[in-house]
Protein: Lipoprotein
Organism: Shewanella psychropiezotolerans
Amino acid sequence: MRNLMFSGKKLSPWLNGIIIMISLTITGCTSILAPTTHSQQVLHVSVSELGQYWIVKDGVMDWSVLFQDQVITGDFTANFAINSQGEIQLMELTQISGSLKTDELKLESFSRQSFIATKGNYSNQPVSVTARVILN
């Protein structure tokens, strides 16, 4: 063990050990109390894999919210993410065919649907999904 010095004088081995123990204890306590801020990367999953991470809070996603007051025929691709709180984010519709028309208010309304993490998703892993939706 290396001897510590205080004001140019060597400390006794006993005092030297006590100072090292206190230093290690303080260092250990500060690392325990430090918040763990590890941001999770969004994992892209298929529609069939989504159920391994999240389930819809009300049972089934209600796509009709996007096309209220319309005769629903056509198909589209929906791209969206589910954050660690089970909220839909970054909702985008592409490849829209047929007579389907939507707007920002309807996208916002659709995004209010929420998800519950599965037991296997104890870390609330955020995911992104691309789903092809066919409405008849």
User: Anything to note?
Assistant: Residues 43-135 form a domain with the TolA/TonB C-terminal domain fold (CATH 3.30.2420). The first strand starts at residue 5 and ends at 6.
